[in-house]
Design goal:
The complex is a heterodimer of chains A (352) and B (232). Chain A has 352 residues and is α+β, with helices and mostly antiparallel strands. In chain A, 24% of the residues lie in helices and 35% in strands. Chain B is mostly helical. In chain B, α3 packs across α6, α9 packs antiparallel against α12 and α11 runs antiparallel to α12. The longest helix of chain B is centred in the N-terminal third of the chain and has 32 residues. The chains are: A alpha+beta (352), B mainly alpha (232). At the A-B interface, β6 and α2 of A face α7 and α8 of B. The complex binds adenosine-5'-triphosphate (ATP) and magnesium ion.
């Protein structure tokens, strides 16, 4: 089911947690709300769920206006950050609670329970209590409980944040596979950019209650619209400067490191801007459109990459990634290098 | 005569005598009705009022809570005259209603449940709401089972308190068949002008003591659990 938000606003005493947000989420899409702590992700999700009331704006599921409906009338399923399993009920009790309230027959409840647990690979654990399950299993019980009522929309609030790193990657894959299987429209909240990039169809980056950019993971990473997004998603080198000229798909920007060529962005000639270039696009071979001299200050070996902090003459430190450290002898601190980066991977962004 | 470490043959005679003289059977039943009634009533009322205070938003919620809280500071003797007046207007003097109902409202219980409910994550209520449970169903199927240990702890405390209460039953009852056991002992306590029969008085005290002890022993496990651990 399609979700459409229009000018949705929610204020708390002194903060505007959600500020005039408009979004269209397509049927069957996995849409992620990404942003730092306190940016309003949970609040927006709770508005969609109906646990909080909008101060202004419209929410539609399909053609139906829902912003004044109570949560249970919206036909949604939700997985809470702390799972919110009822500790005194078994897995069976938790998953079938809603079914029992709907007065389904015993046979139908049993059938739906079995199907629901099978979906999340929990068959056989019906009689366990939540306290007797691992975090990952509790998470899947919560998912089964959310799905067993056949909701139109699934809402997930940081569902993986209580799991350890290895399990997180595994469960994230399972959630994505299940979501695609069911074709259920899903809104996923996270502050983890890697998680957002890896499982979303599209991502909305939020900041202080406003949406900064809505894009596919690839577009978000490669074409952030402003410095905040570029900084929040992945790692970037930022070089402040002023646009000198803009022509033929190349912008020339005057910076402390000299005049650099870049892919043009919103700021026009004369406007202050910031250049963004990702460490993996910077090389040490000194060949490219933009070449800067510097000295190695720090080398951090991460296994799959090797990251250098290179201090340039102007005092600006650039991060440089060597993608294949197996073939590379680590340079000592103080070693003089010439770093280079192509104009096509250098973005001109407005300051904010 | 030197005291012996074991009871003498007079033991049972003393108990029988005490039982007879003070209508002990009747008074123990009265005490049980009062203690159980007060404990159950207090638990029910404080559970519901804490539920209202924690889970509902209504105008004047904080005022209401503080008003309840302030009554904690007013001990029974302070309000006993006005309470008596109300009870007598209702025609409840010397009835079980009069013995129990005025003691049922409990700021302590309300406060205890409020604190406990606040440790339960909101999402537990929200998940139930999503599944279509109304407030009373949530209370009955989720909040109540989770509060079991707290209820047990409160029950023990309130039962003992109700059992031992002296002032109120003394005021509100005026016939021997409505007296509670604690008042009954007083009848058996020796007066200065009489031959002191401590043996009878002590036997009665023993009998009056046993029910609260039995309740504590029986519910000890729950009691301790309710006091030391907040289950999530
Ligand atoms: N019930 C509330 N009362 C008052 N302020 C609130 C309430 N809920 C949220 N806020 C405020 O609204 C803002 C957004 O909060 P929200 O919980 O949506 O952030 P979030 O993006 O989910 O953050 P996190 O990643 O930490 O969960 C914050 O400034 C928060 O303090
Ligand atoms: Mg949140």
């Amino acid at each position: 089911m399609k979700i459409a938000l229009s000018e949705v606003t929610k204020r708390f005493a002194s903060t505007t947690a959600v500020d005039r947000i408009s979004l269209e989420i397509a049927d069957g899409e996995l849409f992620t709300l990404l942003g730092p702590s306190g940016c309003g992700k949970t609040t927006l999700l709770r508005l969609i769920a109906g646990f909080a009331e909008v101060d202004a704006g419209e929410i539609r599921f399909g053609e139906r206006r829902v912003e004044r409906l109570p949560p249970y009338a919206r036909n949604i399923g939700m997985v809470f950050q702390n799972y919110a399993l009822w500790p005194h009920m078994t897995v069976r009790g938790n998953v079938t609670y809603g079914l029992r309230l709907r007065k389904l027959t015993g046979a139908e409840i049993a059938r739906r329970l079995a199907a629901g647990l099978a979906k999340v690979n929990l068959t056989g654990l019906e009689d366990r209590y939540p306290g007797q399950l691992s975090g990952g299993q509790q998470q899947r019980v919560a998912l089964a409980r959310a799905l067993v009522l056949n909701p139109d929309i699934l809402l997930l609030d940081e569902p993986l944040s209580n799991l350890d790193a290895k399990i997180r990657v595994q469960v994230r894959g399972e959630i994505r596979a299940l979501q695609q299987d069911l074709g259920i429209t899903t809104v996923y909240v996270t502050h983890d950019q890697e998680e957002a990039l890896s499982l979303s169809d599209r991502v909305a980056v939020m900041r202080e209650g406003r949406v900064q950019q809505v894009a596919t993971p690839k577009a978000l990473y490669e074409r952030p619209v402003n410095r905040f997004v570029a900084d929040f998603v992945g790692t970037n080198n930022f070089i402040p400067g002023v646009v000198k000229e803009r022509a033929d798909g190349v912008a020339v920007v005057e910076t402390a490191l000299g005049a650099l060529c870049a892919r043009p962005g919103a700021p026009g000639p004369g406007a202050p801007c910031v250049l963004a270039v990702r460490p993996e696009n910077v090389t040490l071979d000194g060949a490219g459109e933009n070449v800067v001299a510097g000295r190695v200050r720090l080398a951090s070996y991460l296994g799959n990459t090797l990251r250098y902090d290179v201090e340039t003459a102007a005092g600006l430190v650039l991060k440089v990634d060597v993608g294949d450290p197996w073939q590379h002898e680590v340079l000592p601190a103080g070693h003089a290098v010439r770093v280079a980066f192509p104009a096509s991977a250098t973005l001109v962004l407005s300051h904010d | 005569m030197p005291p012996t470490p074991w009871p003498s043959t007079a033991l049972f005679a003393n108990y029988a005598e005490a039982w007879q003289r003070a209508q002990m059977g009747r008074m123990l039943i009265n005490s049980a009705i009062v203690a159980l009634g007060v404990a159950a009533g207090k638990i029910a009322i404080s559970l519901l009022s804490a539920f209202a205070i924690v889970y509902f938003d209504f105008r004047g919620k904080h005022v209401v809570f503080w008003m309840i809280f302030v009554t904690l500071m007013l001990p029974v003797p302070v309000r006993i005259v006005s309470t008596y007046q109300v009870v007598s207007v209702l025609g409840w003097v010397n009835t079980y209603w009069g013995l129990t109902v005025p003691l049922m409202a409990s700021a302590t219980g309300t406060f205890l449940f409020r604190q406990f409910f606040r440790t339960i994550p909101d999402s537990l209520a929200e998940a139930a709401q999503l599944d279509g449970a109304g407030p009373l169903r949530f209370l009955w199927t989720i909040l109540l089972p989770l509060s079991k240990a707290n209820m047990a702890a409160l029950f023990v405390i309130l039962f003992v308190y109700g059992w031992n209460d002296y002032l109120w039953p003394l005021m509100i009852t005026n016939t021997p068949d409505m007296r509670t056991a604690v008042i009954g002992i007083e009848i058996l306590v020796p007066r200065t002008s009489q031959l002191p029969e401590w043996n009878i008085a002590m036997a009665a005290a023993m009998m009056v003591l046993l029910p609260p002890v039995a309740v504590i022993v029986a519910m000890q496990r729950w009691f301790v659990k309710g006091l030391i651990e907040t289950e999530k």
